[in-house]
Specification:
The protein is an alpha+beta fold. The protein contains five helices and 20 strands. Helices cover about 25% and strands about 25% of the residues. The chain is elongated and about 120 Å long.
Length: about 375
C-alpha cells in the first residue's frame, strides 16, 4: 500500500510539470496569436495608406507640363506632393502617419522596375508613383510593440508596406467611347497648351470644326481644316450613318495607327446635312455654351487628304467640351480641348494629350 501511495505521489509531480509546460506553451501561442493579429492589422493600415497615396499621386501626374522642345512631361513634383499628403491623412494604431517615402519615375511594364524620371520612355514605360510606409525606429511612432510576446524576448516588430501606381494614356479606344468627329493633328500643336482664360477650368481656347469650304480653321499657312466627320470603319457616306454614330459612338474598338474613314463632305440632299448639327445639339447634357456639358473623346488624325472617303491613321484621342453646334449656312461644331479627362482603356502607350486611363496599382 505504501509503494502504491508513493507511486501516485510521484505521478502527481510529473503531471504538475507537464501542466506547467503546457500552460507555458499555450500562453506563448496566445501571445503570438494576439501580437501577430495586431501586426496584421497594422500591416493592413500601412498598406491602405500606401495604396491611397500612390493612387492619388499617380492621378496627379496629369495634366502634363510642357518640357524642353515642347514635349509633354508628367507633373512629377505635384504627384509626389499629393502622394505624401494623401498618405499622411491615414492612421496607424489610431495615430496619423507622419513619415513616408515617395518615389516617382517611369515604371517598365516588362521588367517591373521603377526607373528615373530622366529616361527617355518607350511605349512600355509609364509614369508612376511609389509610396513606402513603415513602422520602424524613428518612423510613425516606431516599431510595433507586442502586448504579450515580450515575455518570450520579442520586444518589437518592424513592419512596412509599399504600393506603386501608374497613370497611362490609352492606345485603344473601347467601343462606344468616341464621338464621330476626327480632329486634325495640327489642332494639338496650336491649341493644346492654350487657356480659355478661366482659372482652373482646364479648357483651351475655343475653335470650330467644320468643312474645308466653311472653316479653314488652322492658321498653318496650308488652309487646313480643324476636323471632319468620321464614319470610323464604315465606308457609307450618308447622314443616317453619321447620325447613328452620334447617338451610339464607335461600334468597335479603335487603336492608334489604325485607319479610319474621314469624310470632308457627305452625300446628302441639299439642306439635309443641317439635321446632323441638330442631332448633336439634341444629345442630352452634351452641348453647353459654358463648357459644363459632358466630355466626349475625338480621334486625332493626320488629315492627309480632304477628299471624300479618305482613310487616315489615328494618332491619339482628344477630350473636348462641345459649346455649340450650328447648321444652316455655317455648319460647324465649336469645342474646347480638355487638358485632363479619364478615358477607360486597358491598352497603354498612346500619346498623352488630355485623355488618360484611370490610375491603377501595378505593384
Amino acid at each position: 500500500m505504501k509503494d502504491l501511495t508513493s507511486f501516485f505521489r510521484e505521478e502527481s509531480g510529473s503531471v504538475a510539470v507537464i501542466v506547467g509546460i503546457a500552460l507555458t506553451l499555450l500562453l506563448g501561442c496566445a501571445a503570438l496569436a494576439i501580437d501577430l493579429g495586431h501586426l496584421y492589422v497594422v500591416k493592413q493600415e500601412l498598406q491602405n495608406a500606401a495604396d491611397a497615396g500612390s493612387m492619388a499621386g499617380a492621378d496627379s501626374l496629369a495634366p502634363y507640363l510642357i518640357g524642353n522642345g515642347n514635349t509633354l512631361i508628367p507633373n512629377w513634383d505635384a504627384a509626389q506632393a499629393v502622394a505624401s499628403t494623401t498618405t499622411k491623412e491615414n492612421k496607424t494604431d489610431k495615430t496619423l502617419i507622419t513619415d513616408c517615402q515617395v518615389q516617382a519615375g517611369y515604371f517598365n511594364l516588362l521588367s517591373k522596375v521603377l526607373q528615373s524620371t530622366a529616361i527617355t520612355p518607350t511605349t512600355v514605360d509609364v509614369p508612376a508613383v511609389r509610396v513606402t510606409v513603415s513602422r520602424v525606429a524613428g518612423q510613425n511612432t516606431g516599431a510595433v510593440l507586442p502586448f504579450i510576446a515580450q515575455v518570450l524576448g520579442i520586444n518589437f516588430m518592424n513592419v512596412s508596406a509599399q504600393a506603386t501606381a501608374m497613370l497611362s494614356c490609352p492606345s485603344t479606344a473601347n467601343r462606344l467611347s468616341l464621338f464621330p468627329v476626327a480632329v486634325n493633328k495640327g489642332v494639338i500643336q496650336l491649341l493644346f497648351n492654350t487657356s480659355d482664360g478661366n482659372p482652373g477650368s482646364g479648357l483651351s481656347q475655343p475653335f470650330n470644326i467644320g468643312s474645308d469650304y466653311h472653316y479653314p480653321d488652322l492658321d498653318t499657312g496650308n488652309n487646313e481644316v480643324a476636323g471632319e466627320w468620321t464614319s470610323f470603319f464604315d465606308q457609307a457616306n450618308d447622314v443616317t450613318t453619321i447620325k447613328n454614330l452620334i447617338n451610339g459612338n464607335n461600334p468597335s474598338p479603335i487603336s492608334i495607327s489604325q485607319l479610319i474613314q474621314c469624310v470632308s463632305d457627305i452625300w446628302v440632299q441639299p439642306g439635309t446635312k443641317n439635321s446632323l448639327y441638330n442631332d448633336v445639339a439634341n444629345v442630352p447634357n452634351l452641348v453647353k455654351a459654358d463648357g459644363t456639358g459632358k466630355t466626349v473623346f475625338l480621334p486625332v488624325v493626320n488629315l492627309n487628304s480632304l477628299d471624300t472617303h479618305a482613310w487616315n491613321p489615328v494618332y491619339c484621342y482628344l477630350p473636348v467640351k462641345i459649346l455649340d453646334s450650328v447648321g444652316k449656312n455655317q455648319k460647324y461644331i465649336q469645342v474646347k480641348l480638355v487638358n485632363k479627362a479619364k478615358m477607360p482603356s486597358d491598352n497603354v502607350g498612346g500619346p498623352c494629350y488630355g485623355a488618360f486611363s484611370p490610375a491603377r496599382i501595378v505593384q
